[in-house]
Each structure stands twice: as structure tokens, then as C-alpha cells.
Design a protein that fits this description.
Layout (H helix, E strand, L loop, with lengths): L1 E2 L6 H14 L4 E6 L4 H10 L4 E3 L6 H12 L4 E5 L16 H8 L3 E6 L6 H12 L5 E9 L2 H14 L3 E7 L8 E2 L2 E2 L2 H4 L4 H11 L2 H9 L21 E6 L4 E3 L2 H10 L1 E6 L12 E4 L1 E2 L5 H6 L1 H12 L4 E4 L1 H6 E6 L2 E4 L4 E7 L5 E9 L11 E8 L1 E3 L10 E5 L7 E2 L1 E3 L2 E4 L10 H18 L10
Parallel strand pairs: 1-5, 2-3, 2-4, 5-6, 6-7, 10-12, 10-13, 13-15, 15-25, 16-18
Antiparallel strand pairs: 8-9, 11-14, 16-17, 18-21, 19-20, 19-22, 22-23, 24-25
Length: about 450
């Protein structure tokens, strides 16, 4: 499922199709192209499957194909939602675009087109899409946000006259967005409450040819090749417990990151920065991203958790934090004119702005020894943050030299205190295979020091 650009409606259409097929009794495996946590979570809820992210920048072609084979195995249907426009990539060649992913996986493509204030020109656009790269297998188009019968008829007749692409659906303008948006895209399911999928699926059934969409999926060539192991062989050692801060404030995680940690020898223990009083009995902590700013009052009010986190860091417990985790570990968070105290591990203040402060792919070189990455390692990831550290002069050195992206400051990301590393980089474990092994090894050092009644040293690779 691809679009002409961001905001074309491909996510809503993908959600509707996933739920409609699921309600027909099909086992639907959903995928999201690109580094996206929010759309992936909605797709998981719509399809009743764990959505997997597939991105050619974060993962090699071999890993992508292997991951796709593994997740699609046993499903009746694999539904992949693209990102941005079909041919939009990281450069003029369209590298890492949805089109490149479709070609790699040999997926037929259905385009969702926003038809607001467009009639016959849409035929030219669709014709351009098919001619731009004939290797992209565009099978149909779903016309979104159409105004009325006359508008719909001109659109359909023009596309059918001037192109060979089939019109699979014509969706009206919705009077109300079933899933509202905000600065980072769709709001999270935790904040929405109601289940919108029955209504979205009903809209698709009433206005699109669901059977034709399914027939297109079934016409795709067979998935070939054997599934290879996803993760490197684990290093032998004691099982460790790694706490995962996971609640409405922090919930941006890739399931492969969890799998990689388990494979490396970790038991994962979830806890809440909002509801729990202290860090649980663990040997290390993983903090992902999320929306700490919208729940800043609750995070600040939980003073016992903030103090517990700071104590654990000072004791040498390994902490790995991404984006929202960095904001929580800072001294203070500024949002909408209010200041909220955070854990105070780093002498930083993060402020949330109206516009993105970092958005896109990241590539960095590790320059400072730390528990998680060896120096000179090239780290791939992504960032999407509206916050920025406004007192960066308090940082004497950074762990990462950013070659692509923004990070905490132009050209820099990652701060380190004891065994706690935090930055704006979101990382995918399958693109950085040493991370999980190093994380678990660091947790074992802390576990051994604790069992011996000693102090955990600063762990440096």
C-alpha cells in the first residue's frame, strides 16, 4: 500500500483493509516500511498481528528478505504499508524508497491517492507513476477524499481511459478523522481509547473492491528461500534481567530489539515510570522513546521512581535510553510553558518546540568508549524529535559523531554517565547486531558485582 506522499490516507486504508481481511477469517501479517512506531502499533491492533518494520536503510537487503520470509510464514496475507510517496527515498535515486522495497520483495502495489481538488490530472499522475519505473508492479489505485458523484465519475473515467491501472475503490471525504493526528503523526492507541477499526473496515467494504485487492495479493509470486537465523550466536553466561520502561510515556520499541536481547541471554521485565514506585530487581534498564512531554506531570509527580532511576545509574547499572528516555534522564523537561523535574542523571534541560528538531535517518561513528558499542563502530538509526537540549554546553563530550542527521547538537549525539548511555538515536537491533550482546554482557558485569557485594565499575568496550 503506497501513497503519492505523506498524508495521502494510505495508513487509514491499510488499517481498513487489514481489519476487513481479518474479519473474513484470514491470518493477516502486517508490515510497515520505514522507521515508524505509531503506524506500526495501529496496524498491529487492526490485524491482530505484531507488525514488523522493514526499512532498507536500517537493514540490509539480505536481512530484509529473511525477516519478511520469517514473519510472513504461516500467514494468509502479507500487507505492507509504505511511507511518504511511492518513489521518495533518501537521495535523487530513490534509495530506501517504498518502490525499492516493493521490488526487492516482489510485491504488487496499490496506490492510495488524495484526490482533493483534482480530476483529470490524476490520470496523468497515475500514468507517471507507472512509467517512472516499469519494474514497480502497480496493480491498482484507491481514490481517497473524493467530493461527490461527478468528481468520482470524472476521476474513474479519466484513469480508465488514459492508463491501464484499475480503480479499486473510491472513498468519500470523511466528516471526522477516525484516528486524530498531532505533531508526530497519528496519536497513540493508548490515548485514543475507542476501537475505530470496525468503522474503517466498513468504509472500505462499502467503497472499495476488497475481493479484487485480495486477488492482487494472491497473484504475487511465491515467497522463496529458507529462513536463516536472525541473531548472532549468543555468548555463554548467566541469564540477566533487563528492565524495560514501557507505559503510555515510553513505548517506542522494535520487537526485534526485544528478541535480540532475549536471544543474547536476557529476561525482560517491564515496568512503568508512571505507575511503579521504583526500578524493579534487574541488572540493566532499556528506555525507548515515546511521548514523555504529554505525560510530564505524571512522570514528575512520581518522585520515588525518579530517585530510584538516579540511584541505579549511580550504582553502575547499565542504562540504554533513546529519545524519550533521554528526556526522562535529563534534569528538567520544558513543555508548553511549564517546567517538570525529571530523573536528573544528566545536567540537561530538554525543551519541546513546535517544529521538528531532528527528523530522518541517522548514521554515526562511535568515538567514545562505552558499554554498548565498540569505538569506530558505525551506528545506523533514525530520529524524530520535537525536543532539543537547550543547555548542551553542560556536556563535555559526546559518544557519537553524527555523519547524517541532527542528534543532540549538530554533528553530535549520545551522552554517557557511569554505564548509562542516552541520545536521540533510535536503533534497530538487526542493523546493529553487536548491541544486544554487549548490552547483556554489561548487565552480567553489574550482576556479578552486585552478587559479590562490590561496586560495579565503569564498563568500556
Amino acid at each position: 500500500m503506497a501513497g503519492l506522499g505523506g498524508g495521502s490516507g494510505k495508513t487509514i486504508v491499510s488499517l481498513g483493509l487489514a481489519r476487513a481481511f481479518q474479519e473474513q477469517g484470514l491470518a493477516v501479517q502486517t508490515f510497515k516500511k520505514g522507521p515508524d512506531y505509531i503506524d506500526a502499533k495501529w496496524l498491529s491492533l487492526a490485524s491482530h498481528s505484531d507488525t514488523t518494520n522493514l526499512d532498507p536503510f536500517l537493514l540490509s537487503s539480505e536481512v530484509l528478505e529473511n525477516l519478511f520470509r520469517l514473519r510472513a510464514k504461516g500467514a494468509d496475507l502479507a500487507l505492507l504499508e509504505g511511507n511518504r510517496g511511492l518513489y521518495d527515498g533518501k537521495d535523487v535515486e530513490g534509495s530506501c524508497s517504498s518502490a525499492e522495497l516493493a521490488k526487492l520483495l516482489r510485491c504488487p502495489v496499490i496506490v492510495v491517492a488524495d484526490c482533493t481538488k483534482v480530476t483529470r490530472t490524476m490520470a496523468a499522475i497515475i500514468l507517471g507513476l507507472t512509467a517512472f519505473d516499469p519494474q514497480v508492479d502497480i496493480r491498482g489505485v484507491i481514490l481517497n477524499r473524493t467530493a461527490g458523484c461527478r468528481h468520482q465519475n470524472i476521476l474513474r473515467d479519466s484513469i480508465e481511459k488514459y492508463t491501464d491501472v484499475r480503480v479499486l475503490g473510491i472513498l468519500p471525504k470523511l466528516t471526522e478523522n477516525p484516528i486524530p493526528e498531532r505533531h508526530m503523526g497519528l496519536i497513540s492507541d493508548a490515548e485514543h481509547g475507542a476501537d475505530p477499526f470496525a468503522a474503517i473496515a466498513g468504509c472500505l467494504r462499502a467503497n472499495a473492491d476488497i475481493d479484487a485487492c485480495l486477488a492482487i495479493a494472491r497473484s504475487a509470486p511465491p515467497i522463496s528461500g529458507e529462513v536463516a537465523p536472525l541473531y548472532p550466536a549468543p555468548v555463554s553466561g548467566a541469564t540477566v534481567r533487563i528492565g524495560v520502561a514501557r507505559d503510555a510515556a515510553l513505548w517506542f520499541y522494535y520487537q526485534e530489539n526485544f528478541e535480540a536481547l532475549r536471544h543474547a541471554g536476557a529476561e525482560l521485565v517491564e515496568f512503568s515510570l508512571l505507575a511503579d514506585g521504583a526500578v524493579p530487581d534487574v541488572d540493566a534498564v532499556y528506555m525507548g522513546g515515546g511521548f514523555p512531554e504529554t505525560l510530564a506531570a505524571g512522570l514528575a509527580d512520581n518522585e520515588s521512581m525518579r530517585h530510584s532511576v538516579r540511584r541505579c545509574v549511580e550504582q553502575g547499572m547499565p542504562f540504554y535510553a533513546e529519545c524519550g528516555g533521554l528526556m526522562y534522564l535529563s534534569r528538567e523537561l520544558l513543555f508548553e510553558g511549564a517546567a517538570y523535574p525529571m530523573a536528573g542523571v544528566f545536567p540537561l534541560t530538554t525543551k519541546v518546540f513546535q517544529k521538528p528538531q531532528g527528523h530522518g535517518y541517522m548514521s554515526s561513528l562511535v568515538e567514545t568508549a562505552n558499554p554498548f558499542y565498540s569505538p569506530k563502530t558505525r551506528l545506523t538509526g533514525h530520529e524524530f524529535h520535537y525536543s532539543r537540549c537547550i543547555d548542551i554546553e553542560n556536556v563535555s563530550s559526546f559518544v557519537l559523531r553524527v555523519e547524517r542527521g541532527q542528534g543532540m547538537a549538530k554533528g553530535c549525539d549520545g551522552v554517557l554517565h557511569r554505564n548509562c548511555l542516552a541520545g536521540y538515536t533510535h536503533m534497530h537491533a538487526l542493523g546493529n547486531p553487536a548491541w544486544a550482546t554487549n548490552f547483556v554482557s554489561a548487565a552480567r558485569v553489574f550482576q556479578a558485582a552486585r552478587l559479590a557485594g562490590g561496586t560495579c565499575p565503569d564498563i568500556r568496550l
